[in-house]
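Following up on my earlier thread - several people asked me to post the actual chain instead of describing it. Fair enough. Here it is, all 302 residues.
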Amino acid sequence: MKSSSPSKSIGFVGVGRMGANMALHLRDCGHSISCVFDTSEPAAKESAAALECKLSLSLEEVSRDSEVIITVVTDDIAMGEIFCEEKESLLTHAEGKLFLNCATISPDIHRMVEKRIIERGGGCLECCMASSITQARNGTLYLMVGGDRNTFEDASPVLQDLSKNLRFVGPSGKAAEVKALVNMVMNVNTAALAEGLGIGCALGLDLEMLVEVFSQTGANSRVLETDAEDMLQRDHECYFSAEHAAKDSRIALALAKESLLQTPLAQATLEQYEKLVAAGLGSLDKSGVAELTFPGRSPALK
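Reply from S.P.:
Thanks for posting it. Predicted structure:
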């Protein structure tokens, strides 16, 4: 589907599963993808070849060669690196550029990055995604956006091509707070479903029947739709990793601590995902938490 809006050159920093598919979709919409950069050389080369665009060798090249820069990095540390003030980074050519930062990171880091970009004459939005790889490729992401309202309006042509649900949340940091809570609740639901199905298995219940009953009662959830069958089949192909689930739960727990709130369910869920990561299984999908709850599965992990 071609975009009806004038295309600005778009550079990508971070072309893993999400970033690469977002770039492909924007290319298919008629946007000009100027370049890509990733610390993983194989991922960067593969994405540049698929997009037929430049493979940038440095961050400053990306901001030099692009009018809009979309970043999709892993965590707070990576975000600090790409917007570092002490060396060449995306900040080097930030003046007049628009940065759309899509990582799930701490709200304070989003605020810090916005401050650095604005000081250099650029524009910035946090664009938190509550979707996965399929939605990235199809342009049907649910995007929660934080930052300046006028900057949001300017960025809308690109954001609308990425999203079927676009919500402006408020100032910088607020979208990250909402995203952290979304993922906290999702992770708790996933861990609870794994426990319910694990107990059902131990009781000798027909698990397909149990899933159907769950779907028609108060046990229903979006997680039931997306993860139940994967838990039963032990198919944990990654769409949202256990490692990322742990990271996002930590962000939410930090927000709760700042608010002087006790969140024992979120804490217990984090501990489950940390067990998977410690066992070297952090690359499994979040549904892999069922490996800790079904009888006869990886008992050494418990």
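The radius of gyration is 20 Å. That should answer part of your original question.
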